[in-house]
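Deviations from the work plan: none for this task. Representative record:
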Amino acid sequence: MTTLLFATNNQHKLREIQDIMGNEFRILCLKDVDMDVEIPETQETIEGNAAQKARFIYQITGMNCFADDTGLEIDALEGRPGVYSARYAGEGCTFEENIFKILKELSGMENRKACFRTVICLIMDGKEQLFEGRIDGVIIPERRGADGFGYDPVFLPDGYRQTFAEMPAYLKNGISHRGRAAGKMVKWIKSEKAK
Ligand code: IMP
């Protein structure tokens, strides 16, 4: 069993990552190690933020750990909200307010193409590695579905009829940005262990 500390207290993400990585991995969140600190996230790219967060918790705990950062990149908005996805409608805003803002900006636009991109930075046995996962889709004009979080109700992945918020979790995890990035991380860890 490999134990890794994940730089999050978001229970949605924790559950998703644990499901994706399977029971060969024990994933701890910050609460599990009594870490109650604000993790800096001040970089201008998702790669930069993932690395900043992972290095920060590694310096404090010395544990094998990883951090992820995700952006929703919308073509017609020149890649926005991107690295600002969490706080697009303003500091401390809700998921609903973020959705409202992108739908307003996209209203009347024909090009609805978007992608979610996740970068995971893993620090294991002192080695730092980045893994990227991406899923393409479109932003639909109305919310559909009640599951998931964030922009899930308006993101329809290419080739599917259900939004991320309508899909069962196993289906979302199997194709999502985070699922793909975590899948690459699992593969890398297994190959390192086999050396
Ligand atoms: P984070 O960097 O993973 O915290 O993601 C930044 C923001 O992107 C979140 O606050 C959500 O609004 C959005 N986001 C990240 N992952 C997802 C997802 O799987 N579905 C929908 N929105 C997401």
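The helical segments are 11-21, 46-61, 95-106, 169-175, 177-193.
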